[in-house]
Design a protein that fits this description.
mainly alpha, Serine Threonine Protein Phosphatase 5, Tetratricopeptide repeat, 20 helices
Length: 366
């Protein structure tokens, strides 16, 4: 493969599936996000458990006594137990909208303790995502799965959390359990496939992704499968990408072209690969990965001037793109300009301190 790394940084853009479960986990008011993170700091937990806000600290008490929270705070203090859960929930929603997530989590926790329904559990989980106490989050989701076995959202969140925290064995077991309960759960097949791909069990990953695609033939699943085929030099990648492109009446999709370029690059058909990467750039001139892969092909063909122009364009499109600076360094090194090469390797490290290839290159040249 022409790329300097065994795994490219390209990731299929998953825009047509699980819109409420995107990476990043910043809660959108109209969706429940992916996974949660976690319970609050001990101080906030204690404050939430007291039944009112008197011990929450002067600053927090002041916030909750002032608009726009004052009315709800007063209602909470005056209300009976049967009404308090809903009021805590309403105040938590308002706090969330104003980015006061720790206070919101404390209120969601109290609402959950008073009335543990599915909606509260999901919103509590969504808010805890931003706070990040992993093991507490796992316990919360496990409890929710027990309480609401018919709601797959909790299992989905827990699986994502396991993956985020590196608990691969637990995640795989969870997906297997989900599939035992429902073998047609396409999302569980998909998530399992992604995880198997991550741990380099390619054969099992392909099987899982094929199953997901057969159950739910959407572009996200098709392109993830095609990408894995392409990285393994399997021509099935071309067939899948062509099928996706045939349905693209607007001629806007980029990922199928990029994946075809990866396939052709991996099998050494550079001319075909360059055609695909150029097609990507024509559709989106800011698609830095296409510049990178095109430049790498030219570099390995010893067309250093052309490659340099492509990498220059990549960093012009994104001046914080470390790979572009690294490959510019490679071009300067290959043409005997060691001082310039070192400068570009240093810029690479300034953007990505873990870019070991750049650090090794500097050490080699000095």
């Amino acid at each position: 493969m022409n790329s300097f790394r065994t795994n490219r940084r390209f990731v299929v853009r998953r825009t047509d599936v699980r819109s409420f479960r995107k990476m990043g986990y910043i809660f959108q008011q109209t969706h429940f996000p992916d996974i949660l993170s976690m319970l609050l700091s001990i101080g906030l937990l204690m404050a939430a458990c007291n039944g009112d806000d008197k011990n929450a600290g002067e600053e927090n008490t002041s916030i909750l006594k002032n608009p726009p929270y004052a009315t709800l705070t007063d209602s909470i203090r005056r209300s009976g137990k049967e009404d308090r859960a809903g009021l805590y929930y309403k105040r938590a929603e308002l706090l969330s909208r104003n980015d006061l997530h720790e206070l919101a989590a404390a209120d969601f926790q109290k609402a959950w303790e008073l009335h543990p329904d599915e909606a509260t559990g999901l919103r509590y989980a969504s808010t805890l995502t931003i706070i990040s106490h992993l093991q507490d989050a796992v316990r919360l989701l496990q409890e929710c799965r027990q309480k609401f076995p018919g709601n797959q959202s909790f299992s989905n969140m827990l699986g994502d959390l396991y993956q985020q925290s590196g608990q691969t064995k637990e995640a795989l077991q969870l997906y297997d359990d989900m599939l035992k309960s429902d073998s047609l759960n396409f999302e569980a097949w998909y998530e399992k496939g992604l995880l198997l791909e991550k741990i380099r069990d390619t054969a099992s990953a392909l099987k899982a992704l094929r199953k997901a695609w057969s159950l739910q033939p959407i572009n996200t699943y098709a392109l993830e499968l095609a990408h894995l085929y392409a990285e393994n030099r399997n021509s099935a990648a071309i067939d899948i990408c062509d099928a996706v492109l045939q349905k693209d009446s607007t001629h806007e999709l980029i990922d199928p072209l990029f994946i075809k370029g990866i396939y052709y690059s991996n099998i050494g058909e550079n001319k075909q690969a360059l055609i695909q990467f150029d097609s990507c750039i024509r559709r989106d001139w800011k698609f830095t990965d296409a510049y990178l892969e095109k430049g790498i092909i030219l570099f390995h063909e010893k067309k250093y001037t052309e490659a340099q122009e492509v990498f220059q364009m990549a960093i012009r499109v994104s001046n914080t793109y470390p790979d572009g600076y690294y490959w510019l360094g490679r071009c300067y090194e290959a043409t005997g300009h060691k001082e310039e090469a070192i400068l570009f390797y240093q810029r690479t490290l300034a953007l990505d301190k873990d870019f070991t290839e750049a650090r090794d290159a500097i050490r080699r040249l000095k």
